[in-house]
Amino acid sequence: MTDNQFLDTLSNSFKIFLETGSRSNKKLKVLHAAIAKDIKERLGSMYYIHSLDESGGREAKIQGRYINKNVDITISEDKEAKKSIAGIGVKFVMQNYNQNSNNYFENMLGETVNIRAKNIPYFQIFIVPDKLPYYTKGGVIKKMEKFLAHHAKKYFSLASDDPDCYIHTPNKTLLYIISLPAINVELKTTKKAEYYNFYKNLYPLIIKKSTMNYGDFEKSVIFNDYEKFINKICHHIKSI
């Protein structure tokens, strides 16, 4: 899967989110399955890849140091995932980022510690638009939020950590900042439904990489380069 194909997958996932809402896992089936399929093709038949998909595929549970955890994408040596050799966490944020930004990051660190403390490599993918809505509980858009340089600051700190020294640091993290098509009409209301309808009726719905400059990350965090990230993962797994 190339970067352009990855962006197409994100577009499909976003479309499904608009149709099914935030509580449905259908958007995850498209995204997780595409990444899992790509890893399978790169690694070959010696490995089993477990994830949600549209054909009934399910997440596998990795035995962590503190708790057993269902992981978004698991690479194993057997069909039943009894011998898990790596895991990947995937997060695609589509709304209300600011109020949860620290929770997302802290949860990611906790997931990583739990898995890596059992000597299992763990990788993270974090995807967020550079501009996204903040909704009230009543489904009203209160404001549009931006992913700015100060939001990226914690990922700069993470990028400077050596995964060989700090088990809270994913072996590799993909930080992927995207741009949704600009809303070029005046919405009649601030209701979530109208925002959804604009994008549902937009064809084609083309998602691009953000052009905002967040700086140069160090080796632990890969910024907006899916192909580089997935190649690093597969090389790491093959070296185990």
Please give a structural write-up:
The protein is of the alpha/beta class. It has one domain (3-239). It has 6 helices and 11 strands. The strands form 3 sheets. Strands 1, 4, 5, 6, 9, 10 and 11 form a 7-stranded mixed sheet that branches. Strands 2-3 form a two-stranded antiparallel sheet. It has a two-stranded antiparallel sheet with strand order 7-8. Helix 1 packs antiparallel against helix 2. The chain is globular, with a radius of gyration of 18 Å.
Structure keywords:
240 residues, alpha/beta, two-stranded antiparallel ribbon, 11 strands
Distance between the termini: 23 Å
What is the ordering of alpha helices and beta strands?
A: HHEEEEEHEEEHEHEEH
Quick one: overall form? globular
| Strand percentage | 15-25%
Count, helices: 6
Number of strands: 11
> What does the largest sheet look like?
7 strands, mixed
Binned, the helix content reads 25-40%
Task: State the gist of this model.
This protein has about 240 residues and is an alpha/beta fold.
Topology overview:
Blueprint: H1 3-20, H2 26-43, E1 48-51, E2 60-63, E3 68-71, E4 73-76, E5 84-92, H3 101-116, E6 122-129, E7 131-135, E8 141-146, H4 149-159, E9 172-179, H5 192-200, E10 208-209, E11 221-223, H6 226-239
Parallel strand pairs: 5-6, 6-9, 9-11
Antiparallel strand pairs: 1-4, 2-3, 4-5, 7-8, 9-10
Helix pairs in contact: 1-2
